[in-house]
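Incident review: delayed structure delivery

Summary: a single-chain prediction request sat in the queue longer than the usual turnaround. Root cause was a stuck worker, restarted by the on-call engineer. No data loss occurred. The affected request and its eventual output are reproduced below so the record is complete for anyone auditing the incident later.

Affected input:
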Amino acid sequence: MQYFCGINHMPFRHIIQEYRSAYSGLSRDSWLLAVVMLINRSGAMVLPFMSLYVTRELHFSLTEAGLLVSLFGAGSIAGALTGGALVDRFGVFKIQVVSLTAAGIGFFCLIPLQTFQSLAIGLFTVTFFSDMFRPANASSVAVYSPPESVARAFSLNRMAANLGFAIGPALGGLLTVIDFRLIFVADGLTSLVAAFVFYRAFRHRQPAPAPGRPPLIGPAYRDAVYWGFILLVIIFAVAFFQLFSTMPLFFRTEAHLTEPMIGGLLALNGFLVFLFEMVLVNRLEGSGKDHLLIPGGIFLLILAFLFLLPPPVWVFLLLSVILLSFAEMLAMPFMAAWITKRAGGNGLGSYMALYTMAYGVSLILAPLAGTTLADQAGFHSLWIACSILLIPLLFLFYRLPGLRR
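Output delivered after worker restart:
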């Protein structure tokens, strides 16, 4: 208890030392990649507010809103697979510049779209270009990081992403009060600024391409164990992505929160991950308990859904978001670290492409299943279903090959 509650200055100095240790030893390029991610994700407000935008401004049905949000996932799959293939053949630099620039322009093009068909095409196209960035960026993190700190390098990138996500929805909640269309302007501007900063920072710092011509079919596609891992990630992410698809609707319709309050709760997730993930990963990386970390995150995610079952008072909503945030911190960095270890430098782009694709599939399934179940059986049934869906993952991730040292 003295560590947390001591009245002298030792606990505070110890905490400072913990944070200093967590951030030391990371390469300059890892920090530059994190800056680009921070800028890009600071505009992340179209996805969390899309369901509210189309239901309140365009008067679409709940099912139509779920279908449109699911197109983020469809575009993500196509973009991730395309980006992963292009990364292995053309390198990480060109793909990231093209992706960020095209996505930035695309967000502006979404503003005048008012019909379901036009928005469907527009959202798919924008997400396709936006998510070409993800396997290229993840491959960059692995390339620029020494093996002993790769989990921390991924955490640094995720920390930047989550700090951006703390800024994005909070700002988005305020912008929607003025005009919902401003979220598209903000998302587009941050993508274009991120493209400019990345180009300036890395145009003379491109990693050397791997010797020889990469195979057309990456090694990840022939790895049966990895396909099993991808299936587990999809199930995990279907539950986790309720945060972006159905939870905002739950907060609005059942808890009667305003848009700025919803943005604040979503921003809390990003802020908590920004504040604690690096120190947590620094403590746990190399602890020899890797096989417990991902299951531990899944257990916390189950608890997060259970806190949504009582009457939606503020304290339960807050506890749910806090638990969900720590679930993310335990599970996702060590998933990415396991992938890097599994790839072993052999066709990393294809491994990261499939990992990104898993989240794209989940972005399709999560809003479709979530909004349909909530519409037909209620939000309580949805939270119970998510909890039941996650229970087998506790044991399957625990048995994942290569996690034990």
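Verification: Confidence is low (pLDDT under 50) at residues 1-10, 209-216.
Action items: add queue-age alerting; document worker restart procedure.
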